[in-house]
């Protein structure tokens, strides 16, 4: 899954030292340490309140939402339970909690995504485990899922053949976010997902197992991972940042191979568009996420390859985030 840079990279923030003794969510990936329990009188002495801790973090440069999520994680609460912070803003924070919070904020200030620090990310209503082996799923990518679901009307497993697209392929699945979101909303669909990285597929398979979603995973480069198979819908959020783009420096914690794609950022998109027709059924669709300024170029690539009904879709910021087309020709 590729990084969206519609508005440029977000600033990173935090303070204190990193806990190096954290347990692992999967075989190869670090997970943030559980919040230490108070063991001495000193550790339970109040060191301010919830509100004071948040204000201190923000004064040091933390974005408000990041500061809140990390404090909730420190206190053992859901990272989405912002109402708890409002209702308990005068709750005391003890020394151990303050130290743990400071360590997490230090990692954020160093540029590490919040999702890596807390070990998970919410995407399309699903709680996904994520770490340094995969990209941090972005909200912008839900635009791609919305479009895919519109092309996959909910139907019974015994619907008439050809009535709706049924076989779906997610190229470059990363954490499995797109494939798992589609499968969760369209249980009758046969969803496949590929990635060239064995490490990424380990994360994706673990997420699928935890969510009990029957996505089928394949290792390999793009469509080479599923030779000879035919699909009604192919979706992808491939790398689309130019190799020399200065924004990449701010994304150093994420896997470079999932971000950069040639001199203009379109190398992988060109490859997918060129090879997708051979594995799309007539009437099938190809949907691609891309950069904030690449929609016109991607539409032209689709049209030149012979796709029809080519269009782009806007994300919540009204940026052309995805483009796609329908394959109508008979091979």
Structure explained in plain terms:
By secondary structure, the protein is an alpha/beta fold. It has 10 helices and 11 strands. The strands form 3 sheets. Strands 7-6-5-8-9-11-10 form a 7-stranded mixed β-sheet, with helices on both faces. The chain has a two-stranded antiparallel ribbon with strand order 1-2. A two-stranded antiparallel sheet has the order 3-4.
Indicate the CATH topology of the largest domain.
Answer: Rossmann fold
Structural class: alpha/beta
Widest sheet: strand order?
7-6-5-8-9-11-10
Q: What does the radius of gyration come to?
A: 22 Å
CATH class annotation of the largest domain: Alpha Beta
Low-confidence stretches: 4-27, 35-42
Classify the helix fraction into a percent range.
Answer: 25-40%
Overall pLDDT level: 86
- Separation, N- and C-terminal Cα atoms: 30 Å
Residues in β-strands, percent:
15-25%
CATH superfamily of the largest domain: Vaccinia Virus protein VP39
CATH architecture of the largest domain: 3-Layer(aba) Sandwich
- Count of strand segments: 11
Helix tally?
10
**Element pattern in H and E:** EHHHEHHEEHEHEHEEHEHEE
Indicate the overall shape. elongated
Features:
single chain; 331 residues; Rossmann fold; 2 domains; 10 helices; 11 strands
Concise summary:
It is built from ten helices and eleven strands.
Layout of secondary structure:
Blueprint (H helix, E strand, L loop, with lengths): L45 E4 H10 L4 H11 L7 H6 L4 E3 H15 L4 H5 L1 E4 L2 E4 L12 H9 L16 E5 L5 H9 L4 E6 L2 H14 L4 E4 L11 E6 L30 H9 L4 E10 L5 H11 L2 E7 L5 E8 L4
Helix pairs in contact: 1-2, 2-4, 6-7, 9-10
């Amino acid at each position: 899954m590729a990084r969206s840079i519609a508005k440029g990279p977000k600033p990173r923030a935090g303070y204190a030292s990193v806990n190096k003794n954290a347990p692992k969510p999967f075989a190869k990936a670090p997970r943030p340490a559980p919040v230490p329990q108070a063991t001495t009188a000193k550790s339970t002495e109040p060191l301010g309140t919830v509100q004071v801790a948040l204000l201190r973090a923000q004064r040091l440069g933390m974005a408000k939402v990041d500061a809140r999520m990390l404090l909730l994680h420190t206190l053992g609460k859901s990272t989405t339970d912002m109402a708890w912070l409002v209702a308990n803003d005068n709750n005391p924070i003890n020394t151990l909690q303050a130290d743990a919070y400071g360590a997490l904020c230090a990692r954020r200030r160093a540029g590490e995504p919040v999702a890596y620090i807390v070990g998970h990310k919410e995407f399309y209503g699903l709680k996904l485990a994520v770490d340094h082996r995969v990209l941090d799923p972005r909200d912008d990518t839900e635009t791609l899922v919305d479009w895919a679901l519109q092309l996959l009307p909910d139907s019974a497993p015994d619907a008439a053949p050809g009535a709706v697209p049924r076989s779906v392929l997610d190229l470059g699945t990363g954490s499995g976010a797109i494939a798992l979101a589609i499968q969760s909303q369209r249980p009758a669909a046969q969803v496949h997902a590929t990635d060239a990285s064995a490490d990424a597929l380990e994360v994706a398979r673990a997420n699928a197992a935890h969510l009990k979603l029957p996505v089928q995973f394949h290792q390999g480069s793009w469509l080479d991972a599923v030779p000879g198979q035919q699909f009604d819908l192919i979706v992808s959020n491939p790398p689309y940042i130019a190799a020399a783009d200065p924004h990449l420096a701010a994304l150093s914690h994420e896997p470079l191979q999932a971000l950069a794609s040639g001199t203009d950022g379109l190398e992988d998109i060109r490859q997918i568009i060129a090879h997708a027709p051979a594995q799309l059924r007539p009437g099938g669709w190809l949907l691609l996420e891309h950069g904030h300024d690449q929609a016109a170029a991607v539409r032209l690539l689709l049209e030149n390859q012979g796709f029809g009904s080519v269009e782009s879709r806007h994300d919540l910021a009204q940026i052309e985030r995805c483009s796609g087309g329908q394959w109508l020709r008979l091979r």
